[in-house]
């Protein structure tokens, strides 16, 4: 890394140039575009140096080669995460995570192997003290804005205490990143009344009821979309299934419209006419607009993107990392979790 | 009930006239409309006789009063199911379930208190021998037709063996009611590979792998909509949350379109123009089109509807009950479950 001791406080973001189905092309182009939009941070690209330089040249990008960090190996999409990070210490994911661990960088962004990114973030960067399980959230557009859903896939078979941690971290994220003043929190359940959840949800309900968070009780699947609640917590198994189901909805709609168009010429004409309008309306459902998802609870900024990330998605991931840095998100989570842990110790 | 010993084999369907937010109006009108569409069954209305007669008169319906079975009480929407069915033996739900239990009727249809309908069906009508837990399924429209999702709310904290039972029952339902020739089955999970589920899903995977069912392995949330699989099994907690989330999607879309319309006059005009087309396309997402959901695994036909059921939804529920009768669904489930139980005993 270049010596820039004069700019110690400037945010440093590392992007995995080899991460994603269309890497290094999309990762490099997207990262450099983010850098060009806001030069208020240092961008590092980690990966095979020669490949990265080829992409830069091919796309006529301007990027200082001193900010490329060579990493010879790539953790492929199908590889077993924990084995891969052990066996490939010079892979872009491991090298990137280490830079954050060693405080040489503030954020690491990758659209590569999701499991490997999670393992590297949790095992290499490490958890914030007091966090039992880091979490990945989803920002789901709804009638009033956004619903922040935790967890959507960092862990399955979560314990009730993990759902409380998700609520603490989700509250900070919704407040700082979403501008929600006093985020309301709900436990995802089969009904609104107390006791309507499964065992884990019911115990989490009790923990949240006794916390200082703005807990509104149980919420149902529909409430994610109706805007009744800002932050929803659930086991990662439920959240992940829900998220993937939701992501398939726009595709289903497209199909239903096409089927309708086939049946009737007038409908077909109307659909052609309205296509761009529909696209605009559905824009907020498009994950590319949101960029990747941060892994909250690790001791640094870690943003994980879809394998199919476009350059635009990568750009948004980098800008999100920058905003998380500006908002001191990691520090605020650490503080809030520690306050809760102290409270717990006090009462014991 | 009228003496019609000459017609012992004719299907007898009992409709809870007092069930639903708009009862007895919607229940009575919907049931009589179903009867007028196909007179090939006997329709019984259970509830407060005087109220039922008022609705019949008010709507100028023609219905033989001898087919009204008086039940003085109503289990209200908010009541605790098990307590209510104990304390109100002369409620429409208990009376209706008893008629099926006593083989005086083949099917019971209600849009009343869902929990009470489930309890009455399970405790009064009783389970088919070998069924550990009855299940409610959802028919979710997708790119290729329909995905049958079990369980969506009959029970939470299901055991792996219950998911196998759901698969057996769901296979018969998809085949007989949906015309799917050899329904494929998937376990809802966080990834396609073996071991990607939570504990219950992973154990269910093993049970299904060793069954004679057309098991294709784990499926993800998106596969419910992509049409990759015909029958998906999961714990009722997950299924219920997913179903309610899905039901809120059309509302969200409506909202997104309205927001888009507000921003731009041309978009607004296009949306007005295309409204009926969109409505047609979204028709298959409308639960009213599907009617209520059957509780599979009980020893008779039990169909449970939304509290907000329209007359059309009630009509469809009654016609569904009739089709289940014609297809001998209860008998076929009994046979299939017993074959599996025997196999299990053989191998022990």
Automatic annotation (TrEMBL), chains A, B:
What is this protein's gene name?
A: plsX
The task this protein performs is described as: Catalyzes the reversible formation of acyl-phosphate (acyl-PO(4)) from acyl-[acyl-carrier-protein] (acyl-ACP). This enzyme utilizes acyl-ACP as fatty acyl donor, but not acyl-CoA.
Q: What is known about its subunit structure?
A: Homodimer. Probably interacts with PlsY.
What Enzyme Commission number(s) appear in the record? 2.3.1.274
Top-level EC class as recorded in UniProt: transferase
Q: Which reaction does it catalyse?
A: a fatty acyl-[ACP] + phosphate = an acyl phosphate + holo-[ACP]
Q: Which GO terms describe its molecular function?
A: phosphate:acyl-[acyl carrier protein] acyltransferase activity
- Report what the protein is called: Phosphate acyltransferase
Compartments where found: Cytoplasm
| UniProt KW Acetylation keyword | no
What are the GO cellular component annotations? Answer: cytoplasm
The family classification in the record reads:
Belongs to the PlsX family.
Pathway assignment reads: Lipid metabolism; phospholipid metabolism
Protein origin, superkingdom: Bacteria
Task: Set out the biological process GO terms recorded for this chain's protein.
Answer: fatty acid biosynthetic process; phospholipid biosynthetic process
Keywords linked to the UniProt accession:
Acyltransferase, Cytoplasm, Lipid biosynthesis, Lipid metabolism, Phospholipid biosynthesis, Phospholipid metabolism, Transferase
Tell me, what's a Pfam family for it? FA_synthesis
Give the taxonomic lineage as stored in the record. Answer: Bacteria, Pseudomonadati, Ignavibacteriota, Ignavibacteria, Ignavibacteriales
């Amino acid at each position: 890394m270049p010596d820039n001791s004069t700019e110690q406080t400037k945010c440093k973001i590392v992007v995995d140039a080899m991460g994603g189905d269309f890497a290094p092309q999309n990762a490099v182009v997207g990262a450099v575009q983010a850098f060009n939009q806001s030069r208020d941070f240092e961008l590092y690209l980690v990966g095979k140096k020669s490949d990265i330089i080829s992409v830069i040249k091919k796309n006529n990008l301007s990027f200082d080669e001193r900010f490329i960090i060579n990493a010879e190996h790539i953790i492929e999409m199908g590889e077993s995460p924990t084995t891969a990070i052990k066996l490939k210490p010079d892979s872009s994911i491991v090298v990137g995570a280490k830079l954050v661990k060693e405080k040489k960088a503030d954020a690491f962004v990758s659209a590569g192997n999701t499991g490997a990114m999670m393992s590297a973030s949790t095992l290499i960067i490490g958890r914030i003290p007091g966090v039992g399980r880091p979490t990945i959230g989803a920002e789901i557009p709804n009638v009033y804005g956004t619903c922040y859903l935790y967890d959507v896939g960092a862990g399955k078979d979560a314990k009730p205490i993990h759902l409380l941690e998700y609520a603490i971290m989700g509250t900070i994220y919704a407040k700082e990143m979403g501008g929600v003043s006093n985020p309301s929190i709900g436990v995802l359940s089969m009904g609104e009344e107390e006791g309507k959840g499964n065992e884990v949800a019911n115990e989490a309900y009790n923990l949240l009821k006794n916390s200082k968070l703005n807990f509104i009780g149980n919420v149902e699947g529909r409430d994610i979309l109706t805007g009744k609640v800002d932050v929803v917590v659930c086991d990662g198994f439920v959240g992940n299934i829900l998220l993937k189901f939701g992501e398939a909805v726009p595709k289903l709609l497209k199909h239903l419209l096409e089927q309708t168009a086939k049946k009737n010429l007038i409908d077909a004409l109307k659909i052609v006419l309205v296509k761009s309008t529909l696209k605009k309306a559905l824009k907020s459902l498009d994950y590319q607009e949101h960029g990747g998802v941060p892994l909250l609870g690790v001791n640094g900024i870690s943003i994980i993107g879809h394998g199919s990330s476009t350059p635009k998605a990568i750009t948004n991931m980098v800008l999100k990392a920058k905003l998380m840095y500006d908002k001191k998100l990691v520090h605020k989570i650490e503080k809030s979790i520690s306050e809760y842990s102290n409270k717990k110790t006090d009462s014991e």
